[in-house]
Write a structure and sequence with these properties.
Shape of chain A: globular
Radius of gyration of chain A: 30 Å
Keywords (chains A, B): Aminoacyl-tRNA synthetase, ATP-binding, Cytoplasm, Ligase, Nucleotide-binding, Protein biosynthesis
Largest interface: A-B, 50 and 50 residues
Number of domains of chain A: 3
Catalytic activity (chains A, B): tRNA(Pro) + L-proline + ATP = L-prolyl-tRNA(Pro) + AMP + diphosphate
Protein name (chains A, B): Proline--tRNA ligase
CATH class of the largest domain in chain A: Alpha Beta
CATH topology of the largest domain in chain A: BirA Bifunctional Protein, domain 2
Organism (chains A, B): Corynebacterium kalidii
CATH architecture of the largest domain in chain A: 2-Layer Sandwich
Subcellular location (chains A, B): Cytoplasm
Oligomer: homodimer
Chain lengths: 585, 585
């Protein structure tokens, strides 16, 4: 297959588009792979579409390898199934909603759990039909608040979503692990650098989930990795190690002090040091103070419940982590009116004892372990209490993840410390359990003839986003660099000499490369200078570039490897075999 | 490639779905190819998706063969470009409209002329870049008033749309003819029986267009074909032959009669016969009377203009034909208030002379040619005029197509008579000219360095609809029958014997067929009777079916040809070579 650049629908741009911030966005637009049609809505031009199809092919092959069967559901979906699970409203503004000419409600599918569940329910009724795993590669719609970075976070995008239905939890675990392996195979084939991160399930529901994050400084997601072990997690899912409890015997008594000039944690430490107060025989640190955050927690269908959250004074609260810990409840900060309604709350001086004495639930950071001593609010304006010992003077109702995660924090299971990194979500796999199958009352006759509700897994992979990720991870300052598996062409041939013989030789080379089964991009543009052609070749990023130029008089052509930057002069007659060897085709 | 039916996501149905009327709808649902998700919105299950991909492949190959380049535009489109051409409102209720979270207007693309025009305008500026033809195979949305017949007329469907941009009309003609040939190649490869019909351009605009109609009694479109020549046209586009003018010399004078009991054309004929009035020396027929229909014609942006339309008395007016003749003007029938406002109009007795005398434009059917004599209204209540001669007593301002077309009408250019047939639109090609390129002010520097507006063609082909058409044209009473080019599998192998040796032999045959490059559907379901398997094979419609059954003891297998119904016993060892020969692979 040969594409001639003289007639290819392509215009490369020398300048970055004004709205582009990250390299993948700049380069995919400059190289003519995509064009913006509306905010977060892109068109795929010939080269971009070829890469997209190649990525789809890899995904399709690896999904087929685990026995997943391809189908294709609509994007225009009726409201009812999403009403059944509550997601019609839960999705909020991220859902594109519309009405048809009869006034019926529709949505543009953001993910298809509801539809796959009701589809399988409609077809199958016996355990003999299970397990079944279905997938589609399909256009999805999410009305992102901040569509950004070109196709990295679009409002119309292409996703591979698959759904497994199994009769029991072991089946779900198998289907989940199969997807995990398939995702690894896909990302490995593409050469993506990624981490598999423990994740929270969020609005999707279910028990376990992991995210595949492509490592990138331009990623929107922060995740952690352990320095000494195979552990990665997104920030919401990080588990803070619980220190061992310590004995409370022999610890000094709690003492209340008047602290009129200590409204903040820092001023509290300064006050304690000026007073000569010590903890474990050393001067007080910020880590010896205890914050008591007041929030309201609302379980689904319930009333807001006032709750205290205890955090070491050197940590901020991370509301996303707190919300993830309390999912599916929602969390909001207490307001002035809550303090007014509860006069026992001394604003700025709230402590765990006053909360417990007044029946308010107290949740604590895992570091607030039995036997630790704290300086905290004394439940009285301008007063703090010193030597407040967990497990003696107060006992949290439960432990919770609510503190910010920091580089250098201890990793779980003794795997050293945590490093913070940024990534781009390219896959997310969920063990959903029975949330959706129960919502749709999917009853299947099991091996004993009894009705049983199947378990379900849901597995997403960002197909169009992967192309941005590849551009992001593999580009250099000159342009794109595609891995052979998904490159728009195998070989790029450039005529770099006006000599008619060179042109003929290039044409013959192109024909031979194509006949050998390679896909060839042929820069045959007659009035374009070699310099511009070279720059375009670098920008477009085809892995192998043959230059038919001055050297041709000596029977050689130049072969440039776009990924490594290496350039070799090789005999014209060896060009095809060399190309075949390099591409592995 | 082997698909085992024991694990295939497939449930065939014995009964027709309740909402299905046409065979393709019934069979595609019963055979588990598609499932309804919402009115006019369907899901593609594994077998259906395979046929869809095969059809897409044929379309892609033939579009590539004429140099069209594939790209992919979004389905979610901003309002502005459609506002530029007026189609945001012109489309009426057929357009799915929605708002994003910021309140911006969007639509789901029904066809992409606007987007392709602005895309090409954004990339190209010189004649050197032209001609260019772009296509996409993409999901389209139209909120049909009556979605029907499953995927035959859906609200979400897959279309190939392409757009050519050329510097002049000759270029447009070339691009148009190339598409015409590509469409013929596609439909011929699929074995579709179709007619290429002269068509009107309708709301799309432009000068010339043709429709490709698949011949089917369940088609929604009526078209005509000539008995003695290569002429077909949809009813709106039928051209009525103009008879030669005749001499007016020597024809009897026009005479006004009082006709109190002749309010209809039939009673008028009865009156004339009772009076002994003759035309050309023979008794009066209905075809000698002349209707004078009063309508109001509104040019875009103009005021309604009163207009008379003259039709032979044996013909009804076909308002769609009249509107197509007057496109882009709209047409409505005159109302009582129009008669009141124009007292010279004698309702029921309007004639061409009164109209002309009062400055009303008169349009006439081509049969109202110079030298023909008519009995028509005398512009006075209860009076008609006899021997009213066209070209002597009145002269139409223009000729127009407004009469119903009937089986047996004369075909143009002496090609015999017309037959009326029904068809399904599977393609429509348009010479748009400069309607869209002018709307977007697309200025390209021509060879002389002058700014020039390119010409454009637009070419649609119903990809998902084609699958319904193939089912409609090729099924038999037992089920679907696919042409080899797009069948979901090349071969279907059925184990029809519980003998373990037959099972092993079938498995080995399946492996060898797959190794030979054939795609094999393998009915290995252990607890399903041979009778059910045979019925399913007939329903599913794979072209070649191997039955490994009783005969296997003698070393033979049965090979059934689904299209012809032929069955042969062939040697097991010859099965692969026979299959390869039959499929042509």
């Amino acid at each position: 297959m040969i594409t001639r650049m003289s007639s290819l629908f392509l215009r490369t741009l020398r300048d970055d588009p004004a709205d582009a911030e990250v390299p993948s966005h700049k380069l995919l637009v400059r190289a003519g792979y995509v064009r913006r049609t509306a905010p977060g809505v892109y068109s795929w031009l010939p080269l971009g579409l070829r890469v997209l199809r190649n990525v789809e092919k890899v995904v399709r092959e690896e999904m087929g390898a685990i026995g997943a069967q391809e189908i294709s559901l609509p994007a225009l979906l009726p409201r009812e199934p999403y009403e059944t699970t509550g997601r019609w409203t839960e999705y909020g503004d991220a859902l594109f909603r519309l009405k048809d000419r009869k006034g019926q409600d529709y949505l543009l599918g953001p993910t298809h759990e509801e539809l796959f569940t009701s589809l399988v329910k409609g077809e199958y009724s016996s355990y003999k039909d299970f397990p079944v795993t279905l997938f589609q590669i399909q256009t999805k719609y999410r009305d992102e608040e901040r569509p950004r970075a070109g196709i990295l976070r679009g409002r119309e995008f292409i996703m591979k979503d698959s759904y497994s239905f199994t009769m029991d939890d072991e089946g779900l675990e198998e289907a989940y692990q199969a997807h995990r392996r398939a995702y690894q195979a896909i990302f490995d084939r593409l050469g993506v650098e990624y981490a598999i991160c423990a994740a929270t399930s969020g609005a999707m529901g279910g028990s376990a989930s992991e995210e595949f994050l492509a490592i990138s400084p331009n990623g929107e997601d922060t995740f952690v990795r352990a320095t000494d072990g195979d552990y990665a997690a997104n920030v919401e899912a990080v588990v803070t190690p619980h220190p061992d409890p310590r004995p409370v015997e022999g610890l000094p008594e709690a003492v209340v002090y008047r602290t009129p000039d200590a409204p903040t944690m820092d001023t509290l430490v300064a006050w304690a040091r000026s007073e000569g107060i010590t903890v474990d025989g050393r001067p007080v640190e910020l880590t010896d103070t205890l914050k008591c955050l007041l929030v309201k927690v609302t379980e689904p269908g319930g009333e807001p419940e006032l709750t205290g959250v205890l955090l070491p004074g050197d940590r901020e609260a991370d509301m996303k982590r707190l919300e993830a810990s309390l999912e599916p409840a929602t969390v909001e900060l207490a307001e002035d009116k809550d303090f007014e309604a509860n006069p026992f709350l001394a604003k700025g001086y709230v402590g765990p004892k006053g909360l417990a004495d007044n029946g308010v639930r107290v949740l604590a950071d895992p570091r607030v372990v039995t036997g630790t001593s704290w300086i905290t609010g004394a439940d009285r304006k301008n007063h703090h209490v010193v030597n407040m010992v967990a497990g003696r003077d107060f006992t949290p109702d439960a432990y919770i993840e609510a503190a910010t995660v920091r580089e250098g924090d201890a990793a779980p299971a003794g795997m050293g410390t945590l490093t913070l990194e940024r990534g781009i979500e390219i896959g997310h796999i969920f063990q959903l359990g029975r949330k959706y199958t129960e919502a749709f009352d999917m009853q299947i006759l099991d091996v004993n003839g009894k009705r049983s509700v199947p378990t379900m897994g849901s597995y997403g992979l960002g197909v169009s986003r992967l192309i941005a990720v590849l551009a992001e991870q593999m580009h250099d300052e000159k342009g794109l660099r595609w891995p052979a598996e998904v490159a728009p062409y195998d070989v790029h041939v450039v005529i770099a000499n006006k000599d008619a013989a060179a042109g003929e030789a290039a044409g013959a080379l192109v024909d031979r490369l194509s006949e050998a089964g390679l896909e060839v991009l042929y820069d045959d543009r007659p009035k374009v200078s070699p310099g511009v052609k070279f720059k375009d070749a670098e920008l477009l990023g085809v892995p192998l570039v043959f230059i038919v130029g001055r050297g041709f008089a000596d029977g050689t052509v130049e072969l440039r490897d776009r990924m490594t930057g290496d350039a070799d002069n090789i005999a014209y007659d060896d060009a095809v075999s060399t190309a075949l060897g390099r591409t592995g085709k």
